[in-house]
């Protein structure tokens, strides 16, 4: 095993040289996590918006359930998805087990509750500001939901970011349903775990560096978008004065 300084040097060399194996793993990681995040947002954002504008019997219990599901144990989710997608499972005919598709399913299940719960809070606060105006305009529930989703789009980017961060950092579920197969289902987190256990610190560190850069880049991009939106809003308010 190399010392830490040598391992970091070799890791930087792998990143800067554009190592093919390294970036194959990075590319698959982004494909899986971004796909899961988009699917989870397509499901979770409307659910969160619906809960934000609706009042019905049992709503409190539904909110408690969604908040509880935010802490779903990844290995349990992975096990359940494995059972459903295995040859003897009800969805075994799809042939998804040990494929990127199975990993996307597992990550989606994990982050849908996060997206739904966080977006519900954001949109409920926004709905409190617009409720009187919505009633005066006689908007339908669906019109209220679409208006809230559009007006709160920049805040909801942070929700999507939280979902992406959860997906990108996932290990337990994806290793169960994906199998960590080289050149097929090996993503950054499972590769880091494997290479560390093998003592191959340079590749593990290189993947860790790339993962950190991606996380910082996404955060910076969302922050810039929110700052841009705030400037546009201030210009619009000044123009209306």
Automatic annotation (TrEMBL):
GO terms for cellular component: plasma membrane. It comes from the Bacteria. Pfam families: BPD_transp_1 (PF00528). GO terms for biological process: transmembrane transport. Residues 26-222 form the ABC transmembrane type-1 domain. Gene3D superfamilies: MetI-like. Keywords: Membrane, Transmembrane, Transmembrane helix, Transport. The chain crosses the membrane at residues 32-53, 60-85, 97-118, 154-181, 201-222. InterPro entries: ABC_perm_TupB-like, MetI-like, MetI-like_sf. It is a multi-pass membrane protein. It is found in: Cell membrane. Belongs to the binding-protein-dependent transport system permease family. This is Sulfate/tungstate uptake family ABC transporter, permease protein. The lineage of its organism: Bacteria, Pseudomonadati, Pseudomonadota, Alphaproteobacteria, Rhodobacterales.
